[in-house]
């Protein structure tokens, strides 16, 4: 058995007329762009993104003890499930004094969770926790934390949320603290 010869198909691909074809009217024809000569004495402007002064390459110089740790809602809930004392386990992790900080948005999120999460609300209202006021619209805690961390790079973010961790990893110089395997 030999190979069967296939007849070549014509006009399978639509052919495009080039814009310089003589069948196209003069007004629709593509005009060749005229290149301007650059003046060598003219001042060249470049748009360079401004990097924060606290970063020494990727190393954040603003981080140092006592550490300010922005706590997310699910971090508190997971610490309760893992039976961890929040402040003590933070100090064990960093070997330094830690000041857990809670924004108004995170507090509002915990309050919205209702009666089931009353232990988390009790922990969040602990006097050792520093309360940070929010001046923005909306109560979405993830946006609030990302915005605060982008403005001030002196925080460590404590979260278990994968989506929030992915967003914060894009911001240079911001460490992330999370709970895995009950520690």
TrEMBL record:
Pfam family, one: Fcf1
CDD domains: PIN_Fcf1-like
Region span, Disordered: 24-43
Keywords on record: Nucleus, Ribosome biogenesis, rRNA processing
Any one GO cellular component localisation term in the record: small-subunit processome
SMART domains, sorted: PINc
Residues of the PIN domain: 67-166
GO biological process, one term: rRNA processing
Locations listed in the record: Nucleus, Nucleolus
InterPro entries on file: Fcf1/UTP23 (IPR006984), Fcf1_PIN (IPR037503), PIN-like_dom_sf (IPR029060), PIN_dom (IPR002716)
Keyword rRNA processing: yes
Main location: nucleus
Assembly description: Part of the small subunit (SSU) processome, composed of more than 70 proteins and the RNA chaperone small nucleolar RNA (snoRNA) U3.
Function, as annotated: Part of the small subunit (SSU) processome, first precursor of the small eukaryotic ribosomal subunit. During the assembly of the SSU processome in the nucleolus, many ribosome biogenesis factors, an RNA chaperone and ribosomal proteins associate with the nascent pre-rRNA and work in concert to generate RNA folding, modifications, rearrangements and cleavage as well as targeted degradation of pre-ribosomal RNA by the RNA exosome.
Family: Belongs to the UTP23/FCF1 family. FCF1 subfamily.
Protein's recorded name: rRNA-processing protein FCF1 homolog
Gene that this sequence comes from: Fcf1
